Amino acid sequence: MTHLINGEWQSGQGPNLTSYNPATGEALWHGRGADASQVDAAIAAARDAQLEWFLSGLPARQALVRAFKQQLEADKGPLAQLISEETGKPLWETRTEVGAMIGKVELSITAHQDRTGDSEKALPLGRAMLRHKPHGVVAVFGPYNFPGHLPNGHMVPALLAGNTVVLKPSELTPKVSEHVLKLWQAAGLPKGVINLVQGELETGKALASHPGIDGLFFTGSSRTGHLLHQQYAGQPGKILALEMGGNNPLIVREVADERAAVHDIIQSAFISSGQRCTCARRLLLPNTSQGDALLARLLEATKLIRVDQPNAEPAPFIGSMISSEAALGMVAAQRQLESLGGKVLEPLTVVTPGTGLVRPGIIDVTAIESLPDEEYFGPLLQVIRYDDFDQAIRIANDTGYGLSAGLLSDSRAEWDYFLPRSRAGIVNWNRQITGAAGSAPFGGIGASGNHRASAYYAADYCAYPVASMEADQVVMPETLAPGLEL
Ligand SMILES: NC(=O)C1=CN([C@@H]2O[C@H](COP(=O)(O)OP(=O)(O)OC[C@H]3O[C@@H](n4cnc5c(N)ncnc54)[C@H](O)[C@@H]3O)[C@@H](O)[C@H]2O)C=CC1
Ligand SMILES: O=C(O)CCC(=O)N[C@@H](CCC(=O)O)C(=O)O
Q1: 277 catalytically annotated
Q2: ipTM for the predicted complex
Q3: pLDDT digit string (tens) for 301-310?
Q4: Terminus of the chain with fewer CB atoms < 10 Å: N or C?
Q5: CATH code for the domain defined by 3-244+449-470
Q6: Where is the active site (predicted)?
Q7: Atom of ligand 2 at shortest distance to CA of 104?
Q8: Ligand 1 touching residue 446 (CB < 6 A)
Q9: Which fold would CATH assign to domain 249-429?
């Protein structure tokens, strides 16, 4: 059974859907996508459940998400194993993904109170109250790279605020979503409060364009986010939160600890096989002998990165990309950059044909006159050599995206110079640019997002403020406005 609608598991009525273990090519899960009538039914179920869910009160909603957290804690081994099988990410990494899902619960409870809590101020006659209300029924779209953590990052705050949810996960990771929904059910999920519709484009479009949703929370590619924005046009009353990709720069200046700099570069560029929206795509290195030395050391360290089956011992740093098609796409991207004048320094190569296992690559693109402003979503790092800091900052900002950016420099003055000039929502100094904290807001500008940051600020887009002036009785004011006689 594939879809959870109104508390019942159903088979799909849409096209066939299969998911694979990308590290082996083995099929993992079969089903059929939800067709438009099932999307309709999911939205109707969410609508029917919504008021009761909101009126159940914050303590009851907190109790459900905490019960879900307990289910996650009891199931963390199997869930990490499943995420690893369906995404190809190493087990150590999927364990951290499940840890992030668990951590999201208390963080979201705190954020809900902090960002959207109630408050009261005394007025001469009565009081001014601030409360927040849920939007109603919200659609959540998730990507494949964190199939547990990223949809969870929208759903937990949405539920706490009193919304009901229709989740459309990535078609590449349906098994993880089905499993997670079973944990929600084991936690006592009331029927209709979360509905799961699986499927590809047809399901996604039916959900995104449905007049019955009050909000759409999307994490995924910039291309899809832009399409959704167009579909949403003309509905100013509805909330749309877009978390999209990036073409993220990392600038290196003078650093004493070269080994630490190489570590931060590798963690920024290649973690999760480069399949993080925050990954560094462009490394800006000075045109100096220190820049040469750092590059040589980076190339050496990149050759030594262990790429292997996700559950191999000793553990690999990276496992498989999401699919063999994605791996071939990265080979094609490298070829394209090469044809434009890029020089391959360390080739990105497919390890086992027919799988998503690829070795990370590094390409010098300094000579390319018009470098494509593309997010190549995989382990391919573009190196750009620069002459001075201002030029480096100009190149770093020469992108329509604006998700993450970083500076590796032992100079505080350089950080103070960089920070106000950088154009991104996440800007780090002497830290890798991946691995953002859930206790901070998370989002980008330009083609990376629409100023509805998630993580700690997800609470903001899950509810709207209601301001009330209240008094316990109707009372006559002491003075009347001019011209009134009563
Ligand atoms: N800023 C952020 O927080 C993050 C951004 N991402 C970005 O996500 C991308 C990788 O994830 P993908 O799963 O490939 O993203 P994607 O954009 O292909 O898909 C995301 C979701 O949208 C659905 N979808 C695709 N086309 C649609 C359409 N025309 N109408 C309605 N729904 C549609 C998909 O089925 C999936 O559920 C990368 O670009 C990455 O940078 C990933 C993680 C975090
Ligand atoms: O939402 C949060 O709790 C923090 C955001 C987060 O987890 N970011 C990760 C992954 C984002 C991605 O690429 O999918 C990161 O910054 O590495």
Answers
A1: yes
A2: 0.92
A3: 999 999 999 9
A4: C
A5: 3.40.605.10
A6: 243, 277
A7: 3
A8: no
A9: Aldehyde Dehydrogenase; Chain A, domain 2 (3.40.309)
